[in-house]
Design a protein that fits this description.
The protein has 289 residues and is mainly alpha-helical. Helices cover 51% and strands 9% of the residues. The chain has helices at 3-10, 17-28, 41-48, 52-64, 83-91, 137-150, 159-170, 178-194, 200-215, 223-240, 251-264, 279-285, and strands at residues 69-71, 79-81, 109-111, 115-117, 119-121, 124-125, 267-272, 275-277. Strand 3 and strand 4 (115-117) form a beta hairpin.
């Protein structure tokens, strides 16, 4: 893994979020000594949760933008150069990642009329034990963790709006679940302050969605719905005999994706360019007519 390559990618702004994710994974595999990255397209597809042919399409787009250079060798996985990285490295030293590596006991919150995070050095936060006990989870997010988030290097332009969106996503936009969602998000933020994260905003949003999924009540499917899913699974299986794009699919994963989509309206097990799919989207994804 190359910290320089990852730091360079984090500072980029690409029109396609999925292309940015793929580039970030390539940077994560980059070797500073050999000046190459060697991830297979299957590996990139699994990490980004998209199909192999979609990975190839995005890689070709990255190459056309000059962000990567593809080097093909017979019977071997492609190698990738990052031609713009060396120029970036020559112009800047290895940047600080704006993350905290101290333990929670080293973090101190100074509380007055408003609550701010004080620092002795740029990234050493300290905690005055006991003074935050009276704050509810929502206040902790806005008064403690929002100032911390604003100091991180993220792809988010408006940290306040982003935090509001995190709360809405984690609570499924339900007021009854707001307190629980804020409490869970506080634990996620606490983890982020103690552990290095290369893309804090991406990690936080994924965590918020996970919180929402765990707290979302499970709807019981009707027998008609279960039979319909099994019919779709059977069609996909038959189609996989003649369509190479469907070879190697995980049938239990597909079945669960359809169940989630039917229960909740969307599923994030299979996505296209980062967008969750409905049952109709899943049918189109698996070429069901």
């Amino acid at each position: 893994m190359s910290l320089r390559a990852v730091a360079w990618c984090i500072e980029l702004s690409l029109p396609s979020p999925m292309e940015w994710q793929i580039l970030l994974r390539i940077c994560n595999h980059y070797n500073d000594v050999s000046k190459f990255a060697y991830p297979s397209q299957d590996r990139l597809g699994k990490q980004c949760q998209i199909r192999r042919e979609n990975v190839n399409r995005h890689i070709q787009s990255l190459a056309s933008q000059g962000l990567i250079e593809i080097i093909k060798e017979p019977n071997k996985v492609n190698k990738y150069r990052l031609p713009m990285l060396e120029k970036y490295v020559s112009q800047t030293s290895l940047p600080k990642m704006d993350v905290t590596e101290t333990s929670h006991e080293d973090i101190i919150y100074n509380i007055s009329d408003d609550i701010t995070l004080s620092t002795n050095t740029s990234n050493n936060y300290k905690v005055d034990k006991g003074e935050i006990a009276y704050l509810n989870p929502r206040d902790k997010l806005w008064k403690l963790y929002l100032p911390w988030l604003e100091k991180q290097k993220t792809t988010t332009k408006n940290s306040r709006a982003f935090l509001s969106k995190l709360i809405n996503v984690a609570s499924n936009d339900r007021k009854d679940d707001m307190d629980h969602a804020c409490d869970e998000l506080c634990q996620v933020f606490k983890h982020c302050t103690e552990n290095e994260k290369y893309n804090v905003s991406e990690y936080l949003m994924a965590s918020a969605k996970s919180i929402a999924k765990k707290s979302r009540p499970t709807k019981e499917l009707s027998q008609q719905g279960k039979d319909m899913i099994e019919d779709w699974i059977d069609r996909i299986y038959r189609k996989s005999k003649t369509d190479n794009r469907l070879i190697g699919e995980d049938w239990d994963k597909i079945r669960e994706a359809f169940r989630d989509a039917m229960r909740n309206g969307t599923t994030e097990i299979y996505t296209i360019d980062g967008k969750p799919l409905t049952t109709r989207g899943l049918q189109e994804y698996f070429l069901i007519k």
